[in-house]
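Re: beginner question about structure tokens

> Can someone show what the tokenized structure looks like for a real chain? I only ever see the sequence side.

Sure, here's an example I had lying around. Input first:
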Amino acid sequence: MVNIFKRDCKATTLSLIVTIYTLLAYHYPLFRLVVNNIEGGINGWIITGGLAVLMLATNFMMSYIFLYLLRGVGKWIIGLSLIGDAIALYFINTYDVLITDSMMGNVFNTRYSEASGFFSWIAVLYIIFLGILPCVFVVSRKVDFGSAKLFFKRTGVALATILAMVAININNFTWIDRNATQLGSLLMPWSYTVNTFRYISAEKKRNAKEILLPDAKIASESKDVVVLIIGESARRENFSLYGYNKPTNPLLEQENVVALIAKSAATYTTAGVKAILDHKPTDKLFEILPNYLYRAGVDVIWRTNNWGEPPVHIEKYQRVADLKALYPEADERFDAILLEGLKETIESSSADKVFIVLHTSTSHGPIYYSKYPSEFERFTPVCTTVEMANADPTELMNAYDNTIVYTDYLIDSVIEILRTIPTRRAAMLFVSDHGESLGENNLYMHGVPMALAPKEQVEIPFIVWSSEGTESIKQLEEVGQYHTFHSVLDFLGIESEIYNPELTVFK
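And the corresponding structure tokens:
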């Protein structure tokens, strides 16, 4: 019997050990998905068994190739991938996420302050016992790499096995294709490695060069201001403005606002924010709204406590650190810092047209309880764990609902500021980047691919206020995030050949 703990180890043996361990340690979620989505009988066994053998052959071949060709570097690549597998498994088990290219985009664009909120002591145990210890085992082996003849023989057998499994499951291609996104998101280590490259490639393509829109010009002489508030993970269902049974919008219910039915174009921040700022659905990097208005002569101010927007090319781009430097007494922990000096900023502008974006982070999970000041904790008790699947559903919902109460305060505060500036026509638009799952169908947070996304991650609020009153706002049956671009152009009196009058919320 082979002693797997011997320090001296053949490359084939080490590759096989890593392959079997990877299959057993990290793939319960994948096989749970398969079993829950296949019919019984022989065909179900063919799919399940074929997938297991295919994974074993593929991972063995790749591990062996890395070891033989890269030697010591290959050991470290394999070892570090085991740590990556452990981290990915933690997120899959804890938040029931799919590791897609969009999810990797979320990973790369999340700030440390936000990312740290996802981890718990359970994550530490995952990383140590399922990641670090296996990594140490791999990198500490003294490997006999064998001959070139043996290398080609073993990789050839693995490749033949892969092709055989593909041939055996050729009749199951329809099922595999239908579930490809979910299957690919749960395969270790391919889920996060392949999708990382997919995300980087897509970003490089999108950001290669901004495509300028046709020149716009200011066509009205009125003095106007529009404030666009971009919400984070705000789902429509939990706004009492839309019929929710808890009073989450006590201030806005007293205001003259119009709450429009809307759906997001994506379930993650980067794509959702891009849709809000784009003039039409596109994968290309067209000139976004703030850049377009700035080039047309509008005074544009962007204040952010979040991330994930497309490149913003304006003079007045302010992060929380910039605002804290200007207003030392402000509390930088919460989104209200975005309102500091806002009235004075508008009043001091010499431009006829002013456009302001406030990019908030109020309902970003999983630590909802930390996103609002204590006086806005209207619903108790609240969830204080990052392990959402193990949280009390009522406590989790209470914590999230408190973020909506705080959002209500922020929106109303902007309206009050605009109301005190009678020298300008004013409008406020609140649009969320996407929605949020809070345990429905055992899903949490967001990021599920649109083809599979539940309504909770897609249905968003679109709230509009105008100093001219609700009579100036259309009562549209449904709107989308792309209505934002054309509505702002309309209210500010910006003339452009790309303006679409069917996509404005104003009369």
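Each token stands for a local structural state, so reading them left to right follows the chain. The CA atoms of residues 210 and 285 lie 5 Å apart.
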